[in-house]
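Now for my pick.
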Amino acid sequence: MTHEPSTMKEEIIELREDLSGSDLYSEDLAPVPKDKRTWSMWHLAALWVGMAVCIPTYLLASYMILDGMTWLEALIIIGLANLIITIPMVLNGHAGVKYGVPFPVIGRSSFGTNGIHIPSVVRGIVACGWFGIQTWIGGLAIYAIFNAATGAEAATGLSVGKFVGFGIFWLINMYFIWKGTESIKFLEQYSAPILILMGIFLIGWGATQAGGFMTVLDQSTQLGQPAAETYQEGNTTMLKIHPVKDKNAKVKADQYRLIMDDKEGAWATMNDAPIPIAEPPVVTKIQVRKKMGNDYMESSIITPTPKNTGQKALGSKLWSYLLWLTIMVGFWATMSLSIADITRYAATQKAQVMGQFIGLPGTMMLYSFVGIFVTCAAVINFDDILLANDAPWDPVSLLAKFSSPTVVIVSQIFMIIATLSTNIAANVIAPSNAFSNLAPKSISFRTGGIITGIIGIIICPWYLLNEISGVLIFISGLLGPVLGVMLADYYVIRKKEIQLAELYKDKGAYSYSGGFNPAAMVALAVGVGVALIGYFVPALEALYKLSWFSGFLVSFVVYWLMMRGEQHRKLERR
């Protein structure tokens, strides 16, 4: 026997065989002994608070509102998606608690000792991309603090100052990587209550300054419509401008003018009446302005949007809901694979289950709501926001509107804490383990973390920030099939029973054929193929849009069928 259970109720398997001489073994990848399982339910909940409170979470609902959804629809989809993803998170986390091993090691049982490198490195590279994006965001916060403290003017576009801030924040991340997982637990434990209080404070600020809770939320409806749109009335093209309103429901902009075929028209008084447009001139730009003392505050729209005159059909709305649900599920698709990297430090199964359900769905909904609420409040409060496309959806744009250096500095410190707590837990542990697993004797967790940091620079995150939703769908298609294989293997094929010592043997039970499990490779290829084929074949676009679900289900079934067939052949040979 190479392992033995401690109790029937809380089964934790410990390694009883000395495998330190194996090329697949290292101290960083070895099972965590029971006396070092120091993470409680509240530590895991705090970890999820720390990971979920970040700028991408803050922005999630904005994409849906700008796509025409109400704030409530957006919030329900975010909540449902995170409840859905928490289920496989908990299921996959079970192996981490029971065997104390990280994702690249537990994955050897399904993919093989060499096959696991494919999904773990792909997951690691994805995390490196997110690491770079989050580090760039944290660097922008440091840059904003410098500008607020010195009174310097913030540069538009890329600048030396922004890269200096990026470098400083990168070094802060490297410090926590070097100190190890206990420092990460410390960071998450103490940042979580600060971040929750920050969210509550922001909601209170918005409600107080903007004239009440529901007054603020009412603004979300006008943020979901275009700033200006055109439609046909008989043979005449009509233009309707939708300027935003203040807390007294009064339109902020006083005047508008049209630029048609690059010729400026006269300023006219703003009102709710549609404007007839003579043909053939084309509106190339619309300007609105508000008188502020002896000056004017101006805003503009480049091109009006053609109006959707009909109500969205039920089928169309349901499709839109499913599409956004897939995108939201994809947000944490990476963590659902590598959650064992975290749960291996949990003391009990109850701690990991309760900690994840307490920490993830609620925090995601809270901070997505904070993003909605604070943006709507800003639309009401700030005089320079005259049109919906001026709304400061991201916190960086919002904070730039405050004139008090103290407010900016304190707010940016909170943003640094939020970004750091997300980055270290979500985007460092997994790739560090993945790279360490490539050569356990040569690459330590620390070295893997440094590799992560270097790749995070190489991918040029300053160019990736605006591509989040498209990236999330593509990631879903790659990683949903991996999860399908792992859950089918652990729960259906092995019934949660794995030979722990064999995970660390070159010629053990999980070496399969040259270190690759053919069933897993085929299931992965088919699942990814089904998930991504719609990207190239328009007729099958639905499979791509729902890539996490389609890839997961196909890989799960293919792996189960192939492994079941293999088990039957082994029984027949006996």
